[in-house]
Amino acid sequence: MTDRLEIRDVVATYGATTKAKFSNVAVTGAPEDQIRAPLEVLVKSLAVVAGYESVVIVGETAIEDLQTRPDYAVTINNALVGFIEVKAPGKGADPRSFHDRHDKDQWVKLRSLPNLVYTDGNSFGLWRSGEPAREIVRLEGNVESAGGRLRAPGSLLALFSDFFGWTPLPPRSAAQLAETTARLCRLLRDEVEEHLGRGSPSLTSLAEDWRKLLFPSATDKTFADGYAQAVTFGLLMARAQGIDLSDSLDRVAVELRQTNTLIGTALRVLTDDVGSETALNTSLATLTRVLHVVDWSAISKGEPEAWLYFYEQFLSVYDNDLRKRTGSYYTPPQVVQAMVRMVDEALRSEGRFGLSQGLASPDVTVVDPATGTGTYILGVLRRIGETTEADLGPGAVPSVARQAG
């Protein structure tokens, strides 16, 4: 009963404040601007009722047509929880039903976020990775006119309790990790491209260096794609090595450089500018928060091939057209093993080549012009290891493997 009374008072205060805003003769600006301040108070009050402390609501941007940035980010104890997007009263809280071109295009980008509340002040919807997490909650009355008579069903508190309580779930398989990562990488790409279009100094400077040093003809779109994938896979590599992502990205990059100089350096160069991190706060913060819980050993389950097919799965979600253009299709490991074995046996055959060492023979050169993730090269090395152990014993394997490499 106490919670119900507290919610009633909180919502009534919200209604009285919004009515005063809309009825003020001096009011200017878009309708959604009038509910922002009262909405901040409402959300903080609901957090208190739900038992959450240290909730901070951060206004993300004052640029209304920035499609990759929701209106608010919400943190609890300095950890990102989710985002809130505010629409004009009457638009509703189901972005799938929006008709305005800007709203529709924005939803295409924001639906990658794992914890997002849409609201028009009257209705509230909780969305996770583009899917509704709960039924839309509608207040009883109208924020523009109900005043202190505005009421809310108990499901409003349940919705926000769910929102405040969100924590990323560790992906259980490489395929699940690829899908989750690809969606957030795509949001990062879109955010980079959008800020480049607005002349972001830090990102524009990085793009210029990218063209000078690597790809002279790279467009902003090409740079945005390269930036997003490089940062995403840098973070994935960090987690694969057990590096904690809750620290600053600069610290993550420094740690990664100790074991992987190239990727660690690339990650640091791309993220060390404070301006870049601020500009890309939505996508980078979410990507880091979600990947922080990744446990690669649990995902791979001891299968070394798990990484090999990750990129194809990733690209099919991230940009399937790019997968087709780059020919990113990988041969199943069972097929690779069979083909490598047949070649090795043919090389050893007395009636054909007569090379007793097969693929391990110094007279054999293996060329893979479309190496990709190195599936065939790895298959060859494994076959050499297996046959060497069978012919000469396990002690001979390291030496022969080094010679073959």
Strand content: 5-15%
What general form does the structure show?
elongated
Number of helices: 17
Would you report the number of β strands?
7
The third-level CATH topology of the largest domain is tt1808, chain A
First-residue to last-residue Cα separation: 72 Å
Q: How many structural domains are formed by the residues?
A: 3
- The CATH class of the largest domain is identified as Alpha Beta
Instruction: Give the second-level CATH assignment, the architecture of the largest domain.
Output: Alpha-Beta Complex
Identify low-pLDDT runs.
none
Rounded to an integer in angstroms, the radius of gyration calculated over CA atoms is 27 Å
Order of helices and strands: HHEEEHEEEEHHHHHHHHHHHHHH
Category from helices, strands and their pairing: alpha+beta
Structural features, described:
The protein has 405 residues and is an alpha+beta fold. It folds into three domains: 2-164, Alpha-Beta Complex (tt1808, chain A), CATH 3.90.1570; 174-322, no CATH class; 333-404, no CATH class. It is 54% helix and 8% strand. It contains 17 helices and seven strands. It has helices at residues 2-23, 31-49, 101-110, 155-164, 174-197, 201-213, 220-240, 249-257, 261-271, 274-279, 281-291, 296-300, 310-318, 320-326, 333-348, 375-392, 397-404, and strands at residues 55-59, 72-76, 79-86, 116-119, 123-128, 131-132, 137-138. Strands 1, 2, 3, 4, 5, 6 and 7 form a seven-stranded mixed sheet that branches. Strand 4 and strand 5 form a beta hairpin. Helix 1 (2-23) runs antiparallel to helix 2 and helix 5 runs antiparallel to helix 11 (281-291). The longest helix has 24 residues, at 174-197. It is elongated, with a radius of gyration of 27 Å. The model has no long low-confidence stretch (mean pLDDT 85).
